[in-house]
Amino acid sequence: MTPLAGYLLLSAMLFSIGLAGALTRRNAIIVLIGIELMLNAANLNFIAFWRFSEHPEAITGIMFVIFSIGVAAAEAAVGLALIIAIYRHYKTTNVDEMNSLKG
Amino acid sequence: MSLPFAIIAMLTIAAAVAAMSLRNLVHCALALTVAFAGLAAAFLQLDAQFVGFAQILVYVGAVAILIVFAVLLTRGGEAPEKTVFSASWFWGLLVAVTVFGALAWAITNSFASQLAPAEKVDATVKQIGDALMTKFVLPLEVIGLLLTAALIGAVIIAMREESSKTKIEDGRSKIDKTVPPSSILHPPSSGGQQ
């Protein structure tokens, strides 16, 4: 079986890719996609540590990931609704141009 | 490192890089779907079947569709003629590379990389359901409340401002401005006389 370090490195790589996308792209939807990638990398870490733990019969790692997926789904729904509302107001999804909270 | 893991890791990372760097937003959403599917395969390889299938249902099924809808509603499907990267892209990339370097250094030097996996784990759906209904029943209720609040909040945020009022007024004006019945019975053109 693949050692734990392999999964952790994959997770770190995905997290960095998501972070790079969230910090460098101009479109707000891509920024949200980057945040989703980072959340998924954290989920992979939870599952990997659960699988390699000493007591996997206590399924806390799986429970944490299930709740994390639920929170991430709520975040995606609210985030995309915000992007649509902002697009309606500013007619753009460019994060460089969204520089004021009060329209 | 086993061959299936290598394939899954390469596919997932390639899809993630594509999702973050392609110009067309619809292509980005499709690449993101592939990355989510690769992560689900990694979960399955780690003997977490329920989470793997939940990942497919929630992310490949729901979140990807949501993102495609957001792309289409904001007319982001057309690739921009200018650059797709923000003004401060260099610092963002530097931060990301630094974070990966720090994480990779920590992983390779930690004792956790020498851990051996448990011999056999079976996290069946029955066990997960039992735990959700006994030990984790309060978090389950809280996440239900959170999802309900997020659903209502998303609808309210995305709703057009004063949409109900304008809708009623639109309907009234439509009724008022419809063609008067006399012109339907006697159209101005001569074609009605046949």
How are the secondary structure elements laid out?
The complex is a heterodimer of chains A (103) and B (194).
Chain A: H1 4-24, H2 28-51, H3 60-90
Helix pairs in contact in A: 1-2, 2-3
Chain B: H1 3-21, H2 25-45, H3 49-73, H4 89-109, H5 125-133, H6 137-158, H7 163-176, H8 181-185
Helix pairs in contact in B: 1-2, 2-3
Key terms for this structure?
heterodimer, A: 103 residues, mainly alpha, 74% helix, B: 194 residues, Four Helix Bundle (Hemerythrin (Met), subunit A), 8 helices, 70% helix, 0% strand
**Overall helicity of chain B:** over 70%
Number of helices of chain B: 8
> If you compute it from the alpha carbons, what radius of gyration of chain B comes out, rounded to the nearest whole angstrom?
27 Å
Shape of chain B: globular
Biggest sheet record of chain A: none
Measured as a percent range, the helix fraction of chain A is over 70%
The global form of chain A is elongated
CATH homology superfamily name of the domain at 1-78 in chain B: NADH-ubiquinone/plastoquinone oxidoreductase chain 6, subunit NuoJ
Q: Hey, which two chains have the biggest interface? A: A-B, 74 and 87 residues
pLDDT averaged residue by residue of chain B: 82
Commentary on this structure:
The complex is a heterodimer of chains A (103) and B (194). Chain A is an all-alpha fold and 103 residues long. Chain A has a domain at 27-90. Chain A has three helices and no strands. In chain A, helix 1 (4-24) packs antiparallel against helix 2 (28-51) and helix 2 (28-51) runs antiparallel to helix 3 (60-90). Chain A is elongated, with a radius of gyration of 17 Å. By secondary structure, chain B is mainly α. Among the domains of chain B are: 1-78, NADH-ubiquinone/plastoquinone oxidoreductase chain 6, subunit NuoJ (Four Helix Bundle (Hemerythrin (Met), subunit A), Up-down Bundle), CATH 1.20.120; 124-177, no CATH class. Helix content of chain B is 70%, strand content 0%. Chain B is built from eight helices and no strands. Chain B has helices at residues 3-21, 25-45, 49-73, 89-109, 125-133, 137-158, 163-176, 181-185. The longest helix of chain B has 25 residues, at 49-73. Mean pLDDT of chain B is 82; it is low at 190-194. Classes of the chains: A mainly alpha (103), B mainly alpha (194). The interface between A and B is large, with 74 and 87 residues.
